[in-house]
Each structure stands twice: as C-alpha cells, then as structure tokens.
Write a structure and sequence with these properties.
binds potassium ion, 17 strands, 10-stranded mixed sheet, UDP-N-acetylmuramoyl-L-alanine:D-glutamate ligase, Rossmann fold, alpha/beta, single chain, binds ligand LZDS7PUF
C-alpha cells in the first residue's frame, strides 16, 4: 500500500471530489459513516456508555459532528462539545454543525476543567486531524490534558489531536493518547514511527473510497507491506532439484553463541534453500551436526572463533554475522570476506555489523547485492551519530542506503526496508513477543535463503521480513507473546 504525506492526502481528497465526482460534504459524510460503522461493529459504544464527542472547527471537527448525528440517529445520545481554537471554521464543519443542531445542541467548551469525563465513558477525539499546523496550546492543550487524565477509552478520528501526521512533534508537545485511532483510507506516516506509539494506540483503517487513479498517478517513496503487496517466490516446478534453489553458506557462531548459528541454519532451511553449508568454529561441529542434520558443517580451524576464509565461488548467497563475536581474527575474516564476495548476494548481521562500524572503510566496499539488518542501536553505530527524531532517522537511512548502494533492514515494530532507489517499505507483521534473543538470527537465515533462490535483495528483504513477522504472529497465537522464543518463530514459518 502506497503511503502519502499530508499535502498529498489533501490533493487526493480534492482529486476524488473533482473526478468521482462527489461534494466535499458528502465525502465527509462517507468518512463519518465509515467511522460510525466501525464504532458500532466493535461494540465500543454500547448504549449504557456515555459518549463524549470533542470537536474542533476544521474538517476533523466536521467529521466529529457528522459522527454525532449518525450516532444520535442510531439512538445514542452523545455529549457534543466544540472548542473555539481558531478564528476560522471550515465550510463542512459549519454545515455539519447546522445539521446536528436540528437534532440537539452542542456545548461550546470554555473551561476544560468542567468536562464531566470519566473512566467508564468513551471519548471520540475529533479536535484536530491531519490539518495540524502548529503544536497544540492554550484551550486546546488544556482539553487534551483533560482527555489524557480521564482514563476513559479514547478513539481518535483519523489521527490523534496534536500529533503531526507526517513530521516530528517536539518532545514536550501536548498530544492525545488514544486507545484506538480510526484512520481514513491509509495509515499516516506518524503511525509507523516508534516514538509515536503512545499517540496512536491500536490503529485501524476504514475505507472512504478515495480515488484509485490518484494512487496510480502519484509517486511516493513510502509503502506499507500488507498481504496485497508482498513479493512472491517463483513456483516450484515439478522437475526442480535441490540445485534449483541455491546453495547458501552461513558463517556464524563463536564459543557460547553456537545457538545463533543453529537458529539461522534452521530458518534458512525453512526459507526454502536447496543446500546449506554452515561454517562454525570447531567447538560448534557436534552441535550443528546433531541439531541441524539437514545442513553440511564446515568447521573453522579455530576452536572458538570464525577465522578462516574459504572459497565462496560455489555458493549462491552468504549470511554472515550471527553469534560471530568481534575477535580480532573475525574482524580480519570479515575484511577478506567482503573482498571475496563482490559478486555474491549476502546478508550481513549482528556482530559483523559492529565490526563494520569500527572498520568504516569496509562500508565503501560492500558487495552490490548486500542486505544489512541492523536494529536501531546497530544502525546508530553504523552511522556514527544519533538522530534527532524518527523522520531524521529515515532521511539518514535513505542517504546511507543510496550512498553504499545496499538494502538496509532497520528492525523494529514496523521494520523498515530501505533500498538504494529511495523507497521505504514498512512491515505490517510481527509482535512484541519477538523482542527476544535469536529472532534476528532467524531473520538472517530466511533472507539468506531468499537470496540463494535468486530474489533481488530488495524483494528478498520485503518478503523475508514479512514472512518472519507472520511466523512470529503464528507463534504468538499458539503460545502467547511471553512464552515465545526464536525457535517458535522458525517453526511458524510457512510459504
Ligand atoms: N481524505 C481524507 O482523509 C478526508 C479527511 N477528512 C477529515 O479532514 C481532516 C483534515 O481537515 P482540515 O480541515 O484540513 O484540518 P483539521 O481539522 O485537522 O484542522 C483544522 C484547522 O485547525 C487549525 N489548527 C491547526 N493546528 C492548530 C493548533 N495547534 N491550534 C489551533 N488551531 C490549529 C488550522 O487552521 P488555522 O487557520 O487556525 O491555522 C487548521 O486548518 C482529516 O484529518 C479528516 O478527519 C474529511 O472529512 C474526509 C476526507
Ligand atoms: K483527531
């Protein structure tokens, strides 16, 4: 799914109004109808619950008033408040105010302290939406503080009031902290940024029928990987043999961390590779041979560390780094590996990334088909500097990916795949149970398997990250997030 900036969403609105055609107030009616249907379907607005609808004077407030009317017509009796936060009001706000007032009165809120909010009620937050132009202050900020203090269930319309939909907020901004955000048509970029988690809650999309033609015509670097957008593996022909699906090499493990090599190997096999060779230090030989009998084991001459370069020419892809440690000899090995692997697709992870951060000249020499898989701390080390906010992080990520012509998988709740063509693909699968040791090694194995099957690095990264998260979701469904281990993620892989 393509994602847009606030300015593009405004143009999308206008394009739909002109080309469908539909009047803007009817489009608002459609948005309010979709929100109300969601609300009634979820049972969050049961009849015994008090419903408070807090409206601004722009189109987000207009949505709030239209929702109030639809609920009223469905038999509910919401308390509707309007806040005078601006000199101006939008035309569709005015129309919807008049329509509501044919049924009941609204209250113009003068003093937020008087709001009778309580924890058994449900608050519909329609103060401000994507039209936010500055941080909330004054009466608006006081109202938002009251909402957050109420402990009521809060449902934000389109976007939490006070949250910028496509740029960073200041750390001390006052922003609604909703339980749910019900957003129109597409997730806003803000929903995918880690620092915004408290200002999004669980987010849901409702379809308001904005023009598909506009989506097709409008370029954007931002994408959300949902089921409709994942790349596919080629079909397995009935005459294929194990050679068809590539021969992968994993270089992983050190004394005390052979488990990382085991996990990456198991997931590489579940990723569909034809043949797998695992290079581990001597101490890992028996472990690999007994716990991953499907793999061939290549033992390093060193007892506890990876040190030995080997002939890479027979491998279709290599994954290097899980559990590898950062011993001097392993640093030298990585240097030799990079020099040798120029024509081989490879995944560089974990300790190998930390070695790259220290030996920065190696970044300039990375093979053309490289995927790096840092978590935020590792990426910060690779950059050599921290970022100011999540959006600056994305800019730096894009610069980094373009400069070194590599795909970077930045791991997190919405893992983002950045590619040298400037695109960002945010992942939609996975869960907090996966924040546990070894899940990164599992991802490295999967990505190596996909590269070995000749997927391009960008497609391999988007698909592998998606399936890895999906496997984690299966594991969480079976065991719960607390009990989830990296091995369960391997078991959850399906294609
Ligand atoms: N395509 C869609 O998704 C549709 C969205 N709809 C809804 O419309 C809003 C966006 O509406 P818009 O009128 O553009 O913006 P807001 O309602 O968010 O804001 C209105 C005005 O508020 C003023 N403003 C902005 N920031 C502040 C602030 N910090 N303090 C006080 N006032 C503020 C500003 O006006 P000024 O002239 O005062 O600057 C804004 O213009 C979207 O989120 C959806 O809910 C449609 O209903 C359907 C299609
Ligand atoms: K809102």
């Amino acid at each position: 799914m393509k994602l847009f900036t606030v300015e593009q969403i405004r143009q999308w609105d206008a394009y739909t109004i002109t080309n469908e055609p539909i009047t803007s107030v009817d489009l608002m009616e459609r948005a309010a109808g979709a929100f109300t249907e969601w609300l009634l379907r979820t049972g969050l607005a049961e009849t015994h619950r008090e419903i408070f609808i807090l409206c601004g004077m722009g189109n987000n407030g207009g949505d709030g008033l239209a929702i109030a009317r639809l609920l009223y017509q469905a038999g509910y009796r919401p308390h509707v408040y309007v806040i005078r936060h601006s000199e101006r009001s939008s035309d569709d706000f005015v129309i919807n105010l008049q329509r509501y007032e044919t049924l009941a009165k609204v209250q113009w809120l003068e003093d937020p302290q008087t709001l009778p909010l309580n924890e058994t009620g449900v608050i519909i937050d329609a103060l401000l939406g994507s039209g936010l132009t500055r941080s909330a202050s004054g009466l608006l900020a006081q109202t938002i503080k009251q909402i957050n203090a109420s402990k009521a269930e809060v449902i934000s319309v389109d976007v939490a009031s006070g949250l910028f939909a496509d740029q960073a907020n200041d750390p001390d901004d006052v922003i609604v902290q909703p339980t749910h955000t019900v957003s129109f048509q597409i997730p806003k970029l803000a929903f995918l940024q880690p620092k915004n988690a408290p200002y999004v809650g669980k987010w849901h999309l409702v379809d308001i029928g904005l023009s598909q033609a506009y989506v097709d015509l409008t370029p954007s670097p931002y994408f959300y990987t949902d089921t409709r957008a994942i790349p596919v593996l080629p079909d397995r022909e009935s005459f294929s043999n194990k050679g068809t699906f590539g021969h992968a090499l994993l270089m992983a493990g050190s004394y005390g961390k052979i488990g990382a090599a085991v996990l990456a190997s198991r997931s590489c096999l579940r990723g569909g590779v034809g043949l797998l060779t695992v290079q581990v230090p001597r101490c890992g030989y028996t472990i690999i041979q007994t716990s991953v009998p499907e793999a061939m084991c290549l033992t390093d001459e060193h007892e506890t560390e990876l040190t030995q370069p080997n002939d890479l020419s027979k491998y279709s892809a290599v994954g290097i780094g899980p559990g590898m440690g950062q011993a001097k000899a392993s640093q030298q090995l990585l240097r030799q590996f990079i020099a040798q692997a120029q024509d081989i697709p490879c995944v560089i992870d974990a300790d190998a990334l930390n070695i790259l951060s220290q030996e920065r000249d190696l970044l300039e020499q990375l093979p053309a088909k490289t995927i790096l898989t840092p978590h935020p701390k590792e990426f910060e080390r690779l950059l050599g500097k921290p970022w100011k906010d999540d959006y600056e992080k994305l800019r730096l990520l894009q610069e980094f990916s373009t400069r070194y012509r590599i795909v970077v998988v930045l791991k997190g709740k919405h893992t983002v795949v950045a590619s040298p063509d400037g695109e960002f693909h945010f992942n939609s699968t996975g869960n907090a149970g996966m924040a546990t040791g070894g899940t990164g090694d599992v991802l490295t194995g999967v990505l190596t398997a996909l590269l070995a099957q000749k997927l391009e690095p960008k497609e391999a990264a988007i698909l592998g990250v998606y399936r890895h998260g999906e496997a984690g979701d299966r594991a969480a469904a079976r065991r719960g997030m607390v009990a989830l281990t990296a091995g369960d993620v391997v078991d959850g892989l399906r294609w």
